[in-house]
Write a structure and sequence with these properties.
The structure is a single chain. This protein has a single domain, classed as Beta Barrel (Thrombin, subunit H). The longest helix has 4 residues. The chain has 116 residues and is mostly beta strands. The protein has one helix and eight strands. Strand 7 and strand 8 form a beta hairpin.
Length: 116
């Protein structure tokens, strides 16, 4: 997790990150969860920013978050789940996290609401 610089109008957002899980006696055991705070500017995602999402994912209230912290997406190889951001009391799973060119280190994150 890298965090640098500041974002005008950003607010504190809680992020949950889970370590890679393992199998014990053929049963999957999730990794430990860590919670930390980032500075970010969430807003409804535009159709341009959701082009990489499936139609089903686009119906899950996608958010675009500009942040100075690199967040993690699902990694099936390492068995690590995506980070989950809490926005206005709802959880959103990080789907993409891309660096923004020509700015100090900032990332454009697209996240979708987690089903309850």
């Amino acid at each position: 997790m890298r965090s640098r610089g500041s974002i005008l109008g950003a607010r504190s957002l809680s992020v949950k990150r889970r370590a890679a899980g393992t199998y014990v006696n053929r049963k999957f055991v999730p990794g430990a969860e860590t919670v930390f705070t980032i500075q970010g500017y969430p807003e409804p995602a535009s159709s341009e920013s959701t082009v990489s999402l499936s139609d089903a994912q686009r119906t899950k209230d996608p958010k675009l978050i500009i942040t100075n912290t690199e967040l993690l997406t699902l990694d099936k190889t390492l068995k690590t789940p995506a980070d989950v951001i809490t926005i206005n009391g709802r959880d959103y799973e990080v789907m993409t996290c891309e660096p923004i060119e020509h700015t100090s280190p900032h990332w454009e994150v697209v996240a979708i609401r987690v089903d309850e």
